[in-house]
Amino acid sequence: MKIGSNDACWCGSQKKYKKCHMAFDDRIKTICMANHKIISPDIEMIKTKEQLDGIRKAGEINTIILDTVEAHVKEGVSTGELNRIVEEKTRELGGIPAPLNYEGYPKSVCISINDVVCHGIPDEKTILRSGDIVNVDCTTIYNGYYGDASRMYMIGDVDPRAKELVEVTKFALEEAVRLAQPWTPMGDFAHRIFEISVEHGFSVVQNIGGHGCGVDFHEDPWVAHIGVPGTGHLIVPGMSFTIEPMINLGGPENYTDEDDGWTVRTEDGSLSAQWEHHLIITENGNEIISR
Q1: Alpha carbon 153 to its chain's center
Q2: Mean pLDDT over residues 263-289, rounded?
Q3: CB 122 within 8 A of CB 109
Q4: 207: nearest Cα among 176, 252, 177
Q5: Helix H segments across 71-180?
Q6: Of 58, 97, 132, 175, which sits most exposed with the smallest number of CB within 10 A?
Q7: pLDDT of residue 1
Q8: CB contact at 8 A, 177 and 286
Q9: For residues 225 and 169, is the Cβ–Cβ distance under 8 A?
Q10: Sorting pLDDT into bands at 50, 70 and 90, what band is 12?
Q11: How far apart are the C-alpha atoms of 50 and 66, rounded to whole Å?
Q12: Residue 221: its pLDDT value, please?
C-alpha cells in the first residue's frame, strides 16, 4: 500500500512520512531508475534507531569475546578448549552464543583450520599445530540482537604463501569496507575483493557470502564477494550486514562434509582464509561494530 505524505512513516518513528523517510525513499527510487542493475533494498533491511543501538551493543559484546579467546589461540590448544572459553565469556557478559543449536550446529563458535573454508566444528581432539592457519568465527546474541565477526590466526611457523593468503584476505576485507559507502551498490566492493584475490593468484569462494545481520542471525541481503561494479543491492543508511570474504589458495570449489553436515572444505585441499567485519551503514559512511 502506498504511503501518503501525511501518513505515519513506515519506520515507526510516529512522524509524518514527508518529514521522515519520504526524501530517503525518493533518493532510492531515483538511483535505481537511473541504473536498473542496482537493486532497491527492502524496508526490512533498514533498521530503526532502537534496533541499531541494540545491534551496536551486541557487536561490542561480540568483539570483547573475540578479544578474550584470542589470547588462547596458540599451538597445543584444542579447538574444544577455545569453544569453552567462548561459551563461558559469552554467558558471563549476559549474551547467548548464536551458533549453539542453530539449525543443529552443536557448538558455540565456528573454528576452521587450513583447508576448512567455514563452519568447522570445535572438538577436544583437534589441536592447533605450528603451520596452521585458523579462523575463529563468533556470533553473539545480546538482548535479542546479533553481533558477528571472525578473525584469522597463524600458528607458529607458517608457510610464506599461507601467510600471504591470510594477509591478502584481510586487505581485501579492508578495501571492501572502505568502498561499502551509503548510496553505492554492493557490486562495487564485491568486485574489489575479486580483483585483489586474482592479482595475488588466489580465488574467491562464490557460493558462500556475507549477510544481513542484527535482528536475526542471517537476514537479507545476501552479500557476495565477487561482483560487477554498478550492480547489486544499493547500500543505504540503516543497513546492518557482514562482509566476510573466503579466499582460497587454490580453486574456489568446495564441499560440505557428509559426516557432520557442517564443515565446508576446499575441493582441492588447498588452504582457505576468511576475515569478517559487521557493519552498520550511517549517513556519512559506515561503522564497524564488530571485528
Answers
A1: 17
A2: 98
A3: yes
A4: 252
A5: 79-92, 160-179
A6: 175
A7: 64
A8: yes
A9: no
A10: confident
A11: 25
A12: 98
C-alpha–C-alpha distance, residues 134 and 108, integer Å: 16
Separation CA 230–CA 240 (nearest Å): 20
Task: Using the structure block, give the residue that is written with the C-alpha cell 547500500.
Answer: 235
Q: CA-CA distance, 62 to 58, in Å (whole number)?
A: 6
- Encode pLDDT of 140-192 as tens digits: 999 999 999 999 999 999 999 999 999 999 999 999 999 999 999 999 999 99
Q: What is the 3-state secondary structure (H, E, C) of 207-260?
A: CCCEEECCCCCCEEEEECCCCCCCCEEECCCCCEEEECCEEECCCCCEEECCCC
Give the span between the Cα atoms of 70 and 89, in whole angstroms: 12
- Give the 3-state secondary structure of residue 56: helix
Give the Cα separation of 143 and 146 in Å (integer): 9
pLDDT the model gives residue 176: 98
Cell reading at 222: 545476501
